[in-house]
Amino acid sequence: MAKNIHEIEVEIKGKKWEDAIDAAFNTAKLKVNIPGFRKGKVTKEVFIKKYGVESLYYDAINDLLQTEYPKVLKDNKLEPIINPNIDVLEVCDHCCKIKFTITTRPEVKIKKYKDLKVKKDAVKVTNEEIDEEVKNLQARMADIVIKEGKIENGDIAIIDFEGFKDGVAFEGGKGENYSLTIGSNSFIPGFEEGLVGLKSGDEKDLKLTFPENYHSEELKGQKVVFKVKVHEVKTKKLPELNEDFFLDLGMEGVKDEKSLKEVIKDQITARKDYEADNKYIDALLEEISKNTEVEIPDELVEEEIDKMVEEYSRNLQMQGMNLDAFYKFTNSTEEQLREQMRNDASIRVKYRFMLEEIVKLEDIKVTKKEIDEEIKKAAKAYNIPEEEFKEHIGGTDMIEYELQMRKAIDVIKK
Fold it and tell me: How many structural domains compose the chain?
């Protein structure tokens, strides 16, 4: 058995067990109806004769756990990291024996966490990247105008379409006055490309094949024909880089093309530096992980998977989808999703143990002033009162923990 797994047996007998049975009876008698007695007034002897003393064991044990478990932790100086496993070894009318299996923080052995020879990627921003972002800004502020002529990549085609398999229209394959941006890859491969070169009023039959990994079992890998009619072609008219454009942008410090490109360069640099820093931290943690020994409880991995599934669900909701729809769309199950997340969850837990150990080794402390400043800064960022933020985050202990993790990361970065 691992050193961090503690099995402790407790025997409860005599008056303490009798009192627990009495307490369970006093609760149970309020819920039963027995002829000859007003509700809640049945005697213990009559109750036991009708239902048996065994019917009180479950509630009696549950009641005792509220006091016995904290006592076990205190007496044995244990700090659990997950809920205990509780086994009832023996129970009768005069005693019960309970076994607590308590998991505490495992021993973490880190052989090396400094001077790791891991380098952070240099951040470089090219003129091409800046020009591309300027074009993106222009595109977002572009006017949509009717186009006379043929459809090109980037144009918007207003179309009617209907899909047929073996000459029969299939469900979900029809649309009228549908606005399709060419090059958006909204449709299956070949559909948008097949419209390039058409103009308003043109009709065309597109002979296509659905991808093998398409979500619909009836259509994956199937040959189909889409009958398409083009009603209208639109295109984006980009605004000129003039005074009106810079004013409409509403970006602080931007008054001309030069200042715009400077701001964009700073934004891209900041984004790339953030990404490079995260990649650097991941590389450092991975390197430390190679030199770390720790036994990770399966229960903690399952808890981490629970959190990851919740995160995934929130991300799907932001995209207008939920988990049930995702499982149906991908022809998958929750069990498969959890299994896909298992390795990453195990890594997350291991990294957390490593950083907690570095906090111990480095004797990292967080001051009240630092906690207060973090609360103030975060509450301002979320635009909520400080007390509300503290409650939302789970109290100052969680903030202290987060700051300790950041300081531990700073140690390995240095």
Answer: 3
